[in-house]
Amino acid sequence: MRKLLHLVLFILCVGVLNAQDLVRGPYQQNATTHSIKIMWRTSSPTVGWVKIGDTPDNLNRTITGTSATDHNVLVTDLTPYTKYYYAIGYDDVTLASGEDHYILTNKPYGDTTGLSVWVIGDAGKANVPQMMARDAYVQYSKNKPTDFMIMLGDNAYQDGTDDEYQQKVFGRQYAYDSILRYLHYYTTPGNHDYNILRAQSLLDYLDPTIDKGPYYDIHEVPKNGESGGVPSGTEIYYSFDYGHVHFISLNSEVFTWTTNNSSPMKNWLKKDLEANKLPWTVVIFHQPPYSTGSHTSDDFYEFMMQNMREFILPILEDAGVDLVLCGHSHVYERSYLVNGHYKKSGVFNPAVHVLNGTSGNPDLGETYVKEPGAKGTVYSVIGNSGSYTSPDKFPARLHPIFYTRDAGDDVTGSIVLDIRGSTLTVEYINRFGNILDKYSIFKQVEEIEVPTKVKENFVSLYEMNAFPNPSSDKLTLDFNNPSLSKARVFVTDLSGKQVLTQESTANGRSSLQVNGWKQLAAGSYVVSLDIDGRVGSINVVKGK
């Protein structure tokens, strides 16, 4: 009997140890049309792997990482907007798998069929209201699933430490462990995410590039233009394309870079907006330009909010940005369709600054309409996905730019952003699952000029050249592979259909003759090179 008891205890101990191997995740970062990163943490270094396939029971492809506790495995050679199931593990041990472990790659550039995004802000409190806001979204998503998630900063209170992220972002009870295994997310940093960074050095106010810490360690963003947009070369700010929508993540915490007209962030922002040819543009950053919640944008000490309003908004509005989403103030607030208000609320003039003063609710026939090329932006604060503030802590007066506000003790919620064709719609869902605000923007989306465009940001990095061009029987691709990874070459026609593909294991300066080129019909093609999920492309004409 004693031997049997010892055996049972041994089996239980082994089970507990194995269960402890997986400390964090898995979660997904830096998604593109053809790749994604699967990340997780183990309690000790292991050589991790990801298995992937079309069904949970057919994981027929394995990608092996390196020995680590914080695992970061890039999965490539995927098809746009396709669902794949995956498992993670090491050796012969599977740490996580099942029907809720799947990835969904991004829609291709120019696709107008639509997207849906879950957006939260100031969520990281590990409290019941955060949990309820999360569960209300989960219930909502059963009928209206989303494609990815956005976090608007202050993800992990109080200081953005690794332990706080572990509990308040990756935790199971109150946070998002059960969601992040299948929903990849993008983020922008908040002041609380920066607390641990600034504890290391206050010089970051002058030189934000020195910032190092959990926020940047945990997240992988498309800084190199992997998903479109102008490469920023930094995780401090970035952009990406998804279908026919261009997203920009700015950093409201980099004080000098918001005020300095020649700062790296502002110079990049102008270039990125100028290069964007997609019909919809959504911008995210943490500290809102307008609010009368737990933070009031008129207060003289709210420097970051003031800077974003005075120095960043004119750039965004001149480019016709459609929607700006922020957190920081622990309320839900939403503006009319507006333009041109960059000072304090006392000089706000509805006759000048409000382009449409209705509710914007399509159910009431009050959708905001933007003519092609016209200005007009809606601003929204979603800073109550876990945080909330008692009403006696903020002004009773609603900022005059806002149509509505939801705030108070235990008042939490989130939004779902849906953009399909010519219509953008937002629904605000409170923690009880009630839709308390809904608005739409309509603008006629014409046929996108280059719907089959494959991103060209890495042409210079790969030193790519295709010759001869125009070509007939033979086509040679000359390139530099700076990675130890294999290079994947694929050719698409003008409909976006992939017509040729091959691989090269050569590193450094290489030449490759494109197989099957002779058999293609005469016409224009995009020849692309994919290394580590980063794609460079060249347009090539094939003669008869």
Describe the structure.
By secondary structure, the protein is an alpha+beta fold. 19% of the residues lie in helices and 33% in strands. It contains eleven helices and 29 strands. It has helices at residues 2-21, 128-141, 162-168, 177-180, 191-200, 214-218, 255-259, 264-275, 303-318, 350-353, 459-462; strands at residues 22-29, 36-53, 61-75, 83-90, 93-96, 102-104, 115-120, 148-151, 185-187, 238-242, 245-249, 280-284, 323-326, 332-335, 337-338, 354-356, 368-369, 378-382, 402-406, 413-420, 423-430, 435-442, 465-467, 476-481, 487-492, 498-504, 508-513, 523-531, 534-542. The strands form six sheets. It has a seven-stranded mixed beta sheet, covered by helices on one side. Strand 23 and strand 24 (476-481) form a beta hairpin. Residues 5-20 and 450-458 have low confidence and may be disordered.
Q: Care to give the gist of this entry?
A:
By secondary structure, the chain is α+β, with helices and mostly antiparallel strands.
SSE blueprint and pairings:
Elements: H1 2-21, E1 22-29, E2 36-53, E3 61-75, E4 83-90, E5 93-96, E6 102-104, E7 115-120, H2 128-141, E8 148-151, H3 162-168, H4 177-180, E9 185-187, H5 191-200, H6 214-218, E10 238-242, E11 245-249, H7 255-259, H8 264-275, E12 280-284, H9 303-318, E13 323-326, E14 332-335, E15 337-338, H10 350-353, E16 354-356, E17 368-369, E18 378-382, E19 402-406, E20 413-420, E21 423-430, E22 435-442, H11 459-462, E23 465-467, E24 476-481, E25 487-492, E26 498-504, E27 508-513, E28 523-531, E29 534-542
